[in-house]
Amino acid sequence: MEKIKIFFVSRTVRVVAGVVGVLFLAALIFHAGVVYGSHRNPFGRHDAGRGFRPPFFPGGFELPHGFISNAHGAVGTVTTLALPTITMQTREGTSQTILVGTSTITRGGTALSVGDEVLVLGEPDSQGRIDATLIRVLSATSTHI
Fold first, then answer.
1. β-strand 130-139 against 105-107: which pairing, if any?
2. Which of 85, 86, 106, 123 has the largest CB neighbor count within 10 A?
């Protein structure tokens, strides 16, 4: 009878020790992941100068080199459409003149019209106008000019 009791106790001790060991190993792996992640955090203060580089885009989310060298932009509603210029009221309430050229890319609509909400990216000129490289229509109206 004594033999059976000793075997039962030692088996229980082995099971408890195994469970504690597995939990310790899991905690160690978790801690290693936290340490690694805190050093690799692309949104943290360690990478503040790198810009927007989320982990799901290899190499970050950037426009191709030279796409818009001195990039400026505006978001607002088109108030006047007299090509090659567009006047828009920005979300801040200011008026912005946009220059449209033959190399300007337009996305998001078939025709640009007064009342459309647009996002414009381009280079500023000496008069504060934006020479548009890209115009993206965010919401279109039904009245086309």
1. parallel
2. 86
Question: What is the mean pLDDT, run by run of 10 residues, along the chain of 145 residues?
Answer: 58 87 95 78 47 46 49 85 90 88 83 88 87 86 51
The neighbouring-strand residues paired with 139 are 117
Tell which residue, 136, 65, 133, 123, has the closest CA to residue 103.
Answer: 133
Answer whether 0.70 is exceeded by the pTM.
no
Q: Per DSSP, what are the bridge partners of residue 99?
A: 85, 131
